[in-house]
Write the structure tokens for this entry.
Amino acid sequence: MTGFISFIVIFSLLVFVHELGHFIAAKLRGVKVREFGFGYPPRLLRLGIWRETEITLNLLPFGGFVKMAEDDPTEPGNLAAKGRGTRALVYSAGALMNVVLAIVLYSVTFMTGALTPTEGPGAGIYWVSPDSPAAEAGMRPGDTIVAINGEPIDQVQEALDLIKAHTGEPIEIVLRRNGHLLVPVTVIPRENPPPNQGAVGVSLGDPWMRKAYPLWEAIPRGFMAAYNSVRGMFYMIYAAIRGSLPLQVSGPIGIYRETAQVAKSGLDQLIEFTAFLSINLFLVNLLPLPALDGGRLIFVLLETVRGGRRIPPEREGLVHAIGFVVLVALMIVVTFMDYMRYYGPELRR
């Protein structure tokens, strides 16, 4: 139940902040906003009107939405009647707000105590491959391996050697999480693991330590954490294109399961995970695909390339409508794949 509530709260926050970015940019640039909704329709209440914008409360508690005037260039205040700079700002403002949210959340984690690589005994876990022995045993990024089969781990190579020496056999691993030792977990290192996963399915490095920073240090570190998240995602996309890493695409089911797992680790990890998802939403929305913000920015770019000659709004709208249908279909496929990945084995029993 905690995982479900966490998923609803996180998803709502990410979408709400994204739509708030569009709303603020539109208002600042004189674009007519007909409605700003908390949640998704059907409508429950009309909360009032603020500067000609209807504020509503809706039934489905998933973030919010902004209904702008955006398809009639002859209407005063319509987004389609605005210049390229205004349209680019309004289209990109939602994604930029997700970056701001990520920076704020990362900064909060640094103030409350962030996981930091440090020198000392142990082997820190930096990545856990989905469906690996480590994932099934409940090992998570941020954990530190302190002992394997009763033998203390002083450095990363010792952990790798012990795991390699016991492939195909159960081994007992003691983990430290948030400064506390956990009950030992048992895993069986694989003799023939998938490419780039390793026998257990983890990436190891220096041990983790939780350290808190004052506000004036936490904010710059929050900026750097957001930057590193963006850079890391671009690296993973590049590695997936090259084939050196598997392409992992998760839909609502996969994100829910990850959220439920992280929620068990504590509030700090949940805040950091929310920041990570916010960066994901920033990148996804800027993809140059119809119906996404990035797709709309492409039309602004095309207008610039064409010397200011616009593609007719009705044609652009048709492209986005078709793109929306394709994206919905793609989401259905990804959700089905998630369902079969997580629940398919149970159905086949």
Observations:
- The radius of gyration is 23 Å.
- The mean pLDDT is 84.
- The chain has two domains: 1-32+69-113+212-342, 117-211.
